[in-house]
UniProtKB/TrEMBL annotation:
Official protein name in the record: AAA ATPase-like protein
All copies of domain Orc1-like AAA ATPase, residue ranges: 20-192
Pfam families named in the record: AAA_16 (PF13191)
Disordered, as annotated region: 1-23
Length: 388
């Protein structure tokens, strides 16, 4: 079929042609929006799961819902190990300035104008001077040397101004587990205070499966502050629809066995669905995709994953780190005990600390529990086995 009409979208954060299986999360957020409209408070939301399951896409979708309901919504991605604390703060500052400027055009109420000045002061304290972006400042508000205090004052001013309108201030953070501890703890503390004071303010975060534990480590009460949602692979019917619906929209279809074969091969992982879908579209000679097409697409899709999705992580590991990963791969994707990895490599557990920390920093593995280590990417162990 014609590549220029190929609807599938493999890639990080790329909106899929059909987003399936996430109705529960979308409905939960609709409820938050409706409750906010009724001036009722809610908890923040945390989406956690492996790489490639569709967290970024879902987070973006929630943000656009918030935007549609005229919330003051900002979005930041906490960078990996390469970007420092300062960079994330500036990103947050710029995102806030932009959201405030947009909001200014929508509302002329004095209450809102005053609140937006607090954003101007706050972003100035983050190194993004509000005035140069057309915001006025609120002297004495959100402009101290204390990040947590400034954040709290800004949130208080903005959220209390939005409350009568039935709207909220929301900060969407992708890769939240990578946020530095100071900013993370400030966000959690303010979320806590907001709940107590009835300020419509929400942190909506996405990240790896250990994100709930990371938050609890910073503030033990984080457990109660958020609605935690594990984002996993799609159910078989949702996975089948993710393949089928976009093809049909473009005038093609799957023979039932072909669809079952492809759905099975992806195990419901959204990234794989897009990659395999893209492959079958490009190679199928006719408008009806056959079992033979599906078998070829699985080979080609797998090859593409082996050339892109996996190496984009594997290539970042040093030789010593790769030995660590290879020792992990013996346990499949189920996770390993660090003590066992040490035994396999003939090393003392303590001597593996640096490799382990570096691999966590690079986002290749995460610690689901003390003394445990697991791949962040589904299928990584099989990929490593194929490298031999
Ligand atoms: N619900 C879904 N249905 C179908 N495809 C999806 C869905 N969610 C995400 N995808 C696709 O999966 C891939 C990975 O999505 P992404 O949001 O980057 O995952 P994550 O942030 O969890 O690593 C993208 O190609 C995206 O188009
Ligand atoms: Mg992501």
């Amino acid at each position: 079929m014609e590549p220029r009409l190929n609807p599938y979208q493999p890639g990080s954060g790329l909106r899929p042609p059909e987003m399936t299986g996430r109705e529960p999360e979308l409905e939960a957020f609709d409820t938050v929006i409706a409750r906010t409209g009724n001036r009722l408070t809610n908890r923040g939301i945390i989406l956690s799961g492996l790489r490639g399951v569709g967290k970024t896409v879902l987070l973006n979708e929630l943000r656009s819902l918030a935007h549609k309901h005229e919330w003051l919504a900002v979005h930041v991605e906490a960078g990996g190990s390469t970007t420092g604390n300062d960079a994330v703060r500036k990103k947050l500052g710029r995102a806030l300035v932009q959201a405030a400027r947009e909001y200014k055009t929508r509302s002329t109420a004095k209450r809102i104008a005053d609140a937006l000045s607090s954003i101007g002061s706050f972003t100035t304290s983050l190194g993004v001077p509000g005035v140069s972006f057309g915001l006025t400042l609120a002297p004495g508000r959100a402009d101290s040397p204390d990040l947590a205090l400034n954040l709290e004052e800004m949130v208080q001013d903005v959220a209390t101004a939005l409350r009568p309108e039935g709207r909220a201030l929301a900060i969407f953070v992708d890769e939240l587990q990578d946020l530095d501890k100071e900013l993370l703890s400030a966000l959690i503390t303010v979320q806590h205070r907001a709940g107590q004071e009835g300020w419509p303010f929400y942190v909506i975060g996405a990240g790896l499966p250990n994100l709930p534990a990371v938050l609890s480590d910073v503030r033990s009460y984080a457990e109660r502050l958020f609605e935690y949602r594990h984002i996993g692979p799609l159910s078989p019917p949702a996975a089948a629809n993710a393949l089928k619906v976009p093809a049909e929209r473009m005038g093609a279809q799957y023979a039932p066995e072909a669809l079952a074969l492809l759905t099975d091969a992806t195990q419901g992982y959204p990234y794989f669905l897009q990659e395999y879908g893209k492959a079958i579209w490009d190679l199928a000679p006719e408008r009806t995709f056959t079992t033979a097409d599906a078998e070829a697409a699985i080979r080609i899709g797998q090859d593409r994953l082996d050339q892109g999705f996996y190496p984009s992580r594997w290539d970042r590991a040093t030789p010593a780190e790769r030995r660590f990963l290879a020792a992990m791969a013996e346990d499949g994707d189920a996770g390993s005990r660090t003590a066992e990895i040490a035994r396999r490599l003939g090393k003392k557990p303590a001597s593996l600390g640096p490799a382990r920390a570096s691999l966590i920093g690079k986002g290749l593995v995460y610690a689901p529990a003390h003394g445990q280590i697991e791949f962040t990417v589904p299928g990584m162990s099989a990929f490593i086995a194929r490298q031999r």
